[in-house]
């Protein structure tokens, strides 16, 4: 992706033009992020306290025992939302489904390895790891390659 910025006193207002071959999920997320006037935050519960979470800092969000948790570094923080609600809230970020119960942050992935059963084991920069179901492996690889994944991926 190329980014070109033209700063000039003659411009009346800021405008953005996107040139693309086709409409993609990455473009949809980018437009959503540009249209969002305020950063979205998740509210989690940790030790009976409410904590604000920046979606960009999370490794993944998962459902377990009818509850939803956010994983970041060595912490697990409960979210009082349904997994599909979190997924909608994270639409402007680079998240995708890893399995029926996990949504992962593509920007925090460090590396991945193929498991014996066809799943991928994804390792995050924080040291956390999570598995990607076979049905999502192809999409993950495509989004990492076409979406400009980080070094080491």
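Sequence proposed for the structure above (153 residues):
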């Amino acid at each position: 992706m190329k980014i070109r910025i033209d700063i000039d006193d003659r411009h009346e207002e800021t405008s953005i033009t996107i040139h693309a071959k086709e409409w993609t999920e990455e473009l949809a997320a980018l437009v959503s992020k540009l249209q969002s006037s305020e950063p979205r935050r998740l509210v989690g519960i940790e030790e009976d306290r409410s904590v604000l979470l920046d979606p960009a800092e999370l490794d993944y969000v998962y459902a377990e025992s009818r509850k939803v948790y956010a994983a970041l570094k060595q912490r697990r923080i409960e979210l009082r939302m349904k997994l599909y609600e979190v997924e909608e809230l994270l639409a402007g970020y680079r998240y995708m489904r890893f399995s029926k119960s996990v949504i992962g942050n593509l920007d925090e992935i460090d590396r991945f390895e193929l498991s014996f059963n066809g799943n991928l084991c994804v390792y995050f920069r924080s040291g956390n790891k999570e598995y990607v179901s076979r049905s999502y492996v192809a999409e993950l690889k495509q989004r990492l390659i076409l979406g400009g994944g980080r070094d080491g991926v």
